Phosphonate C-P lyase system protein PhnG (Desulfomicrobium baculatum), 149 residues
Amino acid sequence: MSTEETTRQEWMAALALAPEARLRDAWNGLDAQPQYKIVRGPETGLVMVRARTGNTGERFNLGEMSVTRCTVALDQGVMGHAFIGGLCHERARLAAVFDALLQLPERCEELRRTLISPLRQERQAHLARRRDEVRPSRVDFFTLVRGEE
């Protein structure tokens, strides 16, 4: 996998997990809002979530999850896509527009610095807080070894 693909996956993950208000604020804070057209969506559907027991066992269908997707095209010809968990039409539209903008070399560095990096830091801080909340209730199981009888 190339570095470019990894980078795009990272920013798409940050956009997919971002609160709608943060995306709206970033959109309103742009110096020049680009012209774009909606190619597909935003539309909501269902996807099947698959899992494995212990992350190593046989796969099984865990259940369905609602997902909202959107595809936009900038006037420069760049396409942006977003898949958002839940019923989030506006969030999917904004995430797709930012995905397209991040593909433009003249916009990429600024948006990565002002939007993607802060979103990733906020997500990491949120996960750290959750770990700290759960840690006191964690139970460590151990096996007591008995001597030979």
About this structure: The helical segments are 3-17, 20-28, 89-102, 105-134.
